[in-house]
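> @MW can you paste both from yesterday?
MW: sure, first one:
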Amino acid sequence: MYIVAIAWVYVTLLMAATERNLVAGVMTFLTYGLGPLALFLWLFGGPRRKRAAARRQASVSGDAADEPDGTDAKPDQ
């Protein structure tokens, strides 16, 4: 996912560099680059945010039985 974001910033930065004046270059970079990139990262970062929230909730409530790392295993298991 991050390689797509880096490539998109690179392409839009080159697009902005070819504009005739500075204001047009900044607006091109903001509207074609950072705006869609922020939306992309927010949309595709949703599952990660949900997993992190569930992990925080499990650690707060003390219910660590769902964690796959074996922290809930007893010594005889």
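MW: second:
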Amino acid sequence: MKPDLLLTNIGQLATLQGHSESPKIGADMKELSIIEGGAIAIEGGIITAVGPTAEVLAHITEMPDLPPLEFPNMLATPGFIDCHTHLAFGGSREHDFEMKLAGKTYLEILAEGGGILNTLRSTRAASEEQLTRNAFSFAESMLSMGTTTIEAKSGYGLNTASELKMLRSIEDLRRKIPAGLVSTFLGAHAVPPEFEGRPDDYVDLVINEMIPAVSETGLAEFCDVFCERGVFGLDQTRNILLAAKCAGMKLKIHADEIVQLGGAELAAELGAISADHLLMASDDGLEAMQKAGTIATLLPATAFSLNTTYADARKMIDMGLPVALATDFNPNCANDSMFFTIALACYKMKMLPREALSAATINAAHALDRGAMLGSLEVGKRADILILDCPNPEYLTWRFGVNLVHTVISNGKVIHTKLGP
């Protein structure tokens, strides 16, 4: 075997192996399958060997053209997987921040024309090229902080032409960045102004025009709905997601973020891959998700930005519900750092550092239906690898607010390193 790239003498190699078919739950979330003094061989973008350095070297018949890269006293992990972002949009929303500081709620800001409707105006006015440029800048920052796979939603156009424009900009971005992208259609993110007082008419537009158009172009793998009081109710959400499922899309739900509406129960009923937010989810809803195998994707930076209560990650883990973490990068929560997300998960949701790392890698991969190829460092999986300038997983949350990335490898190629290009 002659690898393209060989990493050796890694201080701690957290493989997170053994959960490619199903996510980690319960006590398994603390088990990272760490190898001391580990090594990884990569060929054609795929991991071909992983284990203690001596064992991996014994399988090498010819050394790679590039000398082996050594990382003593460092931590290697799978690349972070950001499984919930709103990456593409026009404008910014820093002016809403003053209303937030004055004590207005998310829904009150929305009612005054801020929030999503503010971004809607900027997104509709932006060209596809402008949306791609904006998203490229955000994605580049994410890559530099170790995120090698990004889910990206539409949802700020809220008409067929603008939603398709957003999804095309995401597809264009896919060709411009060395990372994995997963596209999600979120046409049901809010009711646009032209449908004020007629939400059912807008739902009809989403079902009868937008979903067929998105399906025909193949621009989105998932469909998501903001299921929330004052936005889209349970019946409206169910109808939209059933239409998307019939059109071949996989399902996600923004569920029980602001009020306890029953979104968690609906996610379980429809077989959604994930229900996201869940700050106000009921115990019955969480139990239904656990039985259905629906992943709880938690977004602590959103609670931070809204200055509200946090999802009860500790309860979810203890009851055997698979938990994933994501940034929820969006105009209201401009957080592109999984390091910050992991720190918040530990400080505010009582997750342990090793649980948070599992949630940000292998479980996040399953939240995107990518567990078979991403999220752990095992033979046959895509070589998305982080080398972190820290000695162990606990250091990640001890030294919060810092980018600990030393080297980022995406699809077997070094795309970012402190050593230079």
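> thanks! The radius of gyration is 21 Å.
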